[in-house]
Amino acid sequence: MSTRALSKRPPVLQGTKARKPLQTVSTDLSRYDRLDPFAAINALRKLLSLLPTKLGGCQYKMTPEEHKLSMHLLMIVEPFVGATPSRHNISRQPTEILDNIAFYVDSKRDLLSLALTCQRMHSIVFPRHFDYRVIKAKVSSIRVWNHLIVHRGLARHVRRLEVLDERSLESEIVPSGIATTDTDVESTDDELEIHTKQEKLLVSAVARMYSLHSFKWSCTHSLISIASLWPTLLKCPLLNLVDLNDNTMFLPLGDQDSEEEGGSSRAKKTPIVRSY
Length: 276
Known about the structure:
By secondary structure, the chain is α/β, with parallel strands linked by helices. It is 36% helix and 10% strand. The protein has helices at 3-8, 37-49, 64-82, 95-103, 108-115, 119-128, 142-150, 152-155, 191-207, 230-233, and strands at 134-138, 160-164, 214-217, 241-244, 250-252, 257-258, 265-266, 269-271. The strands form 3 sheets. It has a 4-stranded parallel β-sheet with strand order 1-2-3-4, with no helix packed on it. It has a two-stranded antiparallel ribbon with strand order 5-8. It has a two-stranded antiparallel sheet with strand order 6-7. The longest helix has 19 residues, at 64-82.
């Protein structure tokens, strides 16, 4: 073979391109800002796109450092993706619907669980429902009865009502935030006007408690009789438990029957509570 032919033969590596170095993604977690989800998702996309370029059995496989990085990037992106509520999320419903959902929950314990589900339900359950399921107050607490009369929509949330005796040392359970002015008994009212006012407000408040389930009367030292409240209680459609603790619930009749023998007379006692 001539030297001229050998000179025309191209070298073995002539015309080949040098192999590009493999691209990598930094596995240093401190380089990724937790408040920058766009940089995190771009780094995650780049990391996944490099998996097919790996050689041999390492193709489509992550190293432990890369796997740790991918989980870190997902944790950065996830809160920003979850911040967009789903259209079918309960918290996206109108306030009226959420209020009706809470209305059908009777137990205060269940109401508390419902309120802790999200901030939207918390703002509805407190104080529209949770503070009104149980009311325990004295007849003289005019501010409570006046509040329930004015706010008819809140009075319908009461499930249990207990009227305490005026001498009772038991603590009252009333909705928070009720003003103690403008509705209390005025100092100019005499005793008769005070009790008339208390009876009128109490009856009007109970008349608005359409969902009342339980009622307890524990007044033994009051000029107001359960007889004035009883017709209103009979109109409560859901009332199924009545507990009366009153030593004046049995009243004598006007006429007394005289016994011919013994010279003694006995008054007939008729109970206020009757069977219907």
